[in-house]
Amino acid sequence: MHVKTMEGLVGAGTNMNLLNTPLRVFKEARRRGDTATMERAMGYVSEFDGKVEEYKAETDEGMKEDAKDAKEKAELEREKAIQKREEEGEELETGTVENKKEAADTETDTKMVPDRREPVFYTKTGESSENRIGLSTSISVSV
């Protein structure tokens, strides 16, 4: 929060609270019929009201500066994010080319060496059993 905004809010709040005293005096003087005290109290009310307006203007100015600063900060963050995405895209692109080369190398290697693993069977308990050569599974379907 900008200093002007804080000062304006505090000043306006304080002067609004200070308005209560002369207003109370004005109401008491009106009940008694004391016009001189009423006029003096209204002078204080208008003085405090004027100060409230000054602080309100200062608060508005501070809020405009806050908005301007926030907009500039958001613009810088957005530019940084765009730059970061571009760098990541370049890294991804170069990484993809390297991955394609590596994939091509491994494909040729795997084609040259055939897979010699034998199938593994598991029991109901989840343990692996030895190869059961000669075991054949047949499925018969009748229509």
Which helices and strands appear, and what pairs or packs with what?
Layout: H1 3-32, H2 35-112, E1 121-122, E2 128-129
Antiparallel strand pairs: 1-2
- The proportion of residues in beta strands is under 5%
Q: Using only CA atoms, what is the Rg?
A: 42 Å
Number of strands: 2
**Class derived from helix and strand content:** mainly alpha
Give me the side-by-side strand order of the main sheet. 1-2
**What characterizes the major β-sheet?**
2 strands, antiparallel
Order of helices and strands: HHEE
What is the averaged pLDDT score? Answer: 80
Which percent range fits the helix content?
Answer: over 70%
In DSSP terms (H or I, runs of 4 or more residues), the helix count works out at 2
What would your notes on this structure say?
The chain is mainly α and 143 residues long. The protein contains 2 helices and 2 strands; from the N terminus they run H-H-E-E. It has a two-stranded antiparallel sheet with strand order 1-2. Helix 1 (3-32) packs antiparallel against helix 2. The protein starts with a helix and ends in a 14-residue tail after the last strand.
Write a brief structural summary:
This protein is mainly alpha-helical and 143 residues long. The chain contains 2 helices and 2 strands; from the N terminus they run ααββ. The protein is elongated.
